[in-house]
Design goal:
This protein is α/β, with parallel strands linked by helices. It contains 15 helices and 18 strands. The strands form five sheets. Strands 2, 3, 6, 7, 10, 11, 14, 15 and 18 form a nine-stranded mixed beta sheet that branches. Pfam families: DUF4301. InterPro entries: DUF4301 (IPR025393), Nucleotide-diphossugar_trans (IPR029044). This is DUF4301 family protein.
Length: 526
């Protein structure tokens, strides 16, 4: 299948022929559909907190001990999709076709002075001519000092203030000092970027770090990290043969945000907040944003302490318990004696744990499980990384959704699914999708340490059967791309999960440049 040059190319990327062959087999075999039991809703699966309950969660966050905090911001890739409509408009103008009334590119030019990156010295005097529109689009997309068509979202100026403008990256710095400070006054931020963009992010950081540290009384520890090239996946043609470029080399593509599980796994901090680079808002939204981040972190620490308490109790009642193999193997007895599992105090504790898992995390066990298997299964369900995910009422925004699914081991769990994971030919899946009330804004808090204070190996909790296959193109040729299990999808499938409703005002993504005209991104007097 591979020639000598192919093998050299594969090895140079830190991968192996065996791994690439497995990827090609995955294209042929595909991925299994997720078996949806029901949508997660406020009736079951999504916690809707009262004001008093939210206040209590904030207080818990502010008082609970934690071994380090970190803000994790996925920010890889250029903002080309953000400006897709502008590129199309520029092409139309160059072809002499003009822009129709209401076309996105025309709306952009008509409102150019409302964007934070507007500079009259760059764009000149406004008018309605095609020539002016072409000038504005070209200078926004292709010409310095902007040239935003090839730059990452993080360094694009999002918001205008009385005395400054801020990029999306800067807004994350401001957010971090508000809700992610450590006890020593530091704020740790890890930003995942592409290597070719590092100088752009560092330039922004260097220009504001000292100013913000002085203004907010904080010390920033910012780390830029890259998606490992070894996690890229090979592309195939429509017949599942390796896709070859015009130079006859293999084509590799980034495997999606699921590859970032390796970057997350490298963190030493216990409590980690995950939020996408483009989900920021104008300063006046910061109080609500910070409050509900603290709510999520408080609920996460509450869950941590409850789960860790149960694990210590299980240690006490099972005395000489030793570790069991991963994954859970039915019928395996690590003690060699069933009496320990059948102790009344052990079974009473298991009853409490089972009730807690079913009520709080929608984890139900198979109906017929013997004493020994129940203890082992409950322990395995407890001893996992924890995530608390904010969920927003579904008002038409794009994003995956929260569902209760049936697992391979006979249990149920809470999962975030993308549309491509839902089998639309299945009546139950379609029904669950139609009844869904919320969607995933990627507002996640994680606890990454176990009950003994050690970091989990996150690679052990990935569902490798939860990836994606999508259709793409390369120089006009159709291809198929393989994405690893998404960071908040399959990569976190085997985590303990809690969904909590958060206000829609905490979710303000910028998917297209025109989103910057929304109230959350405009000065208040607009």
């Amino acid at each position: 299948m591979f020639n000598t040059d192919d093998l050299k190319q594969i090895e140079s990327r830190g991968s192996s022929a065996a791994v690439v062959e497995q990827q090609i087999e995955r294209f042929k075999k595909g991925f299994p559909w997720m078996k949806i039991s029901a949508p997660a809703t406020p009736q079951k699966g999504i916690a809707v907190l009262s004001g008093e309950e939210a206040d209590a969660a904030v207080k818990y966050y502010e008082s609970a001990p934690v071994n380090g905090k970190c803000k994790f911001v996925p920010a890889s890739g250029a903002a080309s999709r953000m400006f897709k409509d502008l590129f199309a408009g520029l092409d139309a103008l160059k072809d002499g076709k003009g822009l129709a009334e209401g076309a996105p590119a025309r709306r952009f030019v008509e409102n150019i002075d409302r964007f934070a990156f507007y500079d009259s010295a760059v764009f000149g005097q406004k008018d309605t001519s095609d020539k002016y529109m072409e000038t504005v689009l070209s200078r926004t997309l292709n010409e310095e000092p902007l040239a935003y068509g090839s730059k990452p979202k993080g360094v694009i100026k999002f918001h205008k203030y009385a005395d400054e403008v801020r990029t999306a990256f800067e807004e994350h710095l401001v957010e971090a000092q508000e809700y992610m400070r450590n006890a020593d006054g530091t704020a740790n931020i890890v930003v995942t970027i592409s290597p070719e963009h590092e100088h752009l992010f560092r330039a922004v950081l260097d220009s504001v770090k000292e100013k913000y540290e002085k203004r907010f009384g904080v010390k920033y520890n910012v780390t830029f990290t890259f998606q490992d090239k070894a996690t890229d996946t090979v592309a195939v043609d429509v017949n599942n043969n390796p896709f070859r470029t015009e130079t006859d080399s293999l084509l590799f593509r980034p495997a999606g945000h699921g590859a970032l599980i390796n970057n997350l796994n490298a963190l030493s901090e216990e409590l980690v907040s995950i939020k996408n680079i483009d989900n920021v808002a104008h300063d006046r939204y910061l109080p609500a944003t910070a409050r509900y981040k603290k709510v999520l972190m408080g609920k996460c620490l509450e869950l941590r302490d409850k789960i860790h308490g149960y694990l210590r109790e299980l240690d006490a009642v099972t005395e000489n318990y030793v570790s069991y193999p991963e994954p859970y193997l039915p019928g395996y007895s690590p003690l060699g004696k069933d009496e320990v599992y059948m102790k009344p105090e052990c079974q009473m504790l298991c009853n409490d744990i089972q009730e807690f898992l079913e009520k709080e995390l929608c984890i139900s066990l198979p109906e017929s499980v013997d004493c020994k298997s129940r203890v082992m299964m409950l322990r395995r369900k407890l001893d996992r990384p924890i995530r608390v995910c904010g969920m927003v009422k579904n008002e038409g925004e794009p994003g995956g959704g929260p569902f209760i699914i049936s697992e391979k081991d006979g249990t149920t769990s809470l999962q975030i699914l993308e549309g491509v994971q839902v089998n639309m030919a299945d009546e139950q899946a379609r029904k669950s999708l139609s009844e869904a009330t919320h969607f995933n804004p990627v507002d996640i808090v994680c606890c990454l340490h176990d009950y003994k204070g050690n970091s989990f190996d996150l690679g052990k909790f990935v569902d490798h059967e939860a990836g994606f296959i999508s259709s793409k193109s390369y120089q006009g040729r159709e291809l198929k791309a393989l994405e690893l299990p998404g960071l908040w999808n399959g990569s976190m499938s085997d985590w303990n999960t809690l969904f909590v409703e958060v206000p829609s005002e905490t979710f303000n993504p910028v998917k297209t440049v025109l989103d910057l005209l929304r109230p959350a991104h405009q000065p208040e007097n607009r």
